[in-house]
């Protein structure tokens, strides 16, 4: 890099901080049996942000004993659902005979592939006691060649997720690489999923490949994003331009609590997206087939 900085022809060696494309507000909506979610997208003009199809913040919501709602049996085909719990306990069951708890700090990366039916409900004990439920669900699209792959699960407990703390910055590396740590989760296409907690006035400088689409979701606090230090706060989404290889996020210095933010990035697939509820394929015909396969029981059922 050193001798190239004066040579205009070798720009690829230089770092360039990305600018912000736009900032939007998450929309409060109800999912499943009436569970409150803040939907980052699809929302208004943003249908998807290739390769990402949806991001929901579930809660945070304080649930009184016996009152917890969830998402009973429903199918998925053609993409991946990534559940990341911050607080509370979810229970998962599916048509492959797989079941488990997702607790605070755990991640479940489910590749639905050709199809699964699953349920995502607050855990029984949690339901009896009540408490705070808070988590995220991200939908990651699969490229055409992997849409009909066999379903796959990666259940990663909080203790296995690499965490680095340094100079007022903490990062949990769910996917990709940050501050010298690599994620344990494997992704079908290159994905970066980082949870940063940034103390007031500290700044993150995250290297990101030029080809990735990048967005940030503010969980708590307020920060300044990108080369022009655009401000965004809790429940806002920051979409970045594809104009550099570095992302900067600075926590505002006039806040008492740290900035809590998800930074999510991936290589755009550039393929047609046809979505119908829980099915995301490349053509209308493939959607019709998915509906038929679901209705004729080809995606199985939860029978335990
Ligand atoms: Co689901």
Description:
The protein has 304 residues and is mainly beta. It has a single domain, classed as Sandwich (Jelly Rolls), CATH 2.60.120.10. The protein has 2 helices and 26 strands. A hairpin with a 4-residue loop joins strand 20 (222-225) and strand 21 (230-233). The chain starts with 19 loop residues before the first strand and ends in a 9-residue tail after the last helix. Residues 1-10 have low confidence and may be disordered. The chain binds cobalt (II) ion (CO). Cobalt (II) ion is lined by residues 71, 74, 76, 81, 118, 120.
List the defining traits of the structure above:
2 helices, mainly beta, 7-stranded antiparallel β-sheet, binds cobalt (II) ion, Jelly Rolls
Cα(first) to Cα(last) distance is 59 Å
Total strands = 26
| CATH architecture type | Sandwich
* Whole-angstrom Rg: 20 Å
Mean pLDDT figure: 92
Widest sheet, order of strands? 1-22-19-24-17-14-13
* CATH level 1 name: Mainly Beta
CATH-defined fold name:
Jelly Rolls
Bound compounds, each kind once, are: cobalt (II) ion
* CATH-level-4 superfamily name: Jelly Rolls
Unreliable spans are: 1-10
- When the domains are counted, the total is 1
User: How many individual helices?
Assistant: 2
Largest sheet: 7 strands, antiparallel
Q: Percent range for helical residues?
A: under 10%
Give the SSE string: EEEEEEEEEEHEEEEEEEEEEEEEEEEH
Strand content of the residues, in percent?
over 45%
Dominant shape: globular
Task: Give the topology, please.
Layout: E1 20-25, E2 27-31, E3 35-41, E4 52-63, E5 71-76, E6 79-87, E7 90-94, E8 99-102, E9 107-111, E10 116-122, H1 124-129, E11 131-141, E12 152-156, E13 163-166, E14 169-175, E15 177-178, E16 181-182, E17 191-198, E18 203-207, E19 213-220, E20 222-225, E21 230-233, E22 236-240, E23 246-251, E24 259-266, E25 274-276, E26 279-281, H2 284-295
The structure holds cobalt (II) ion.
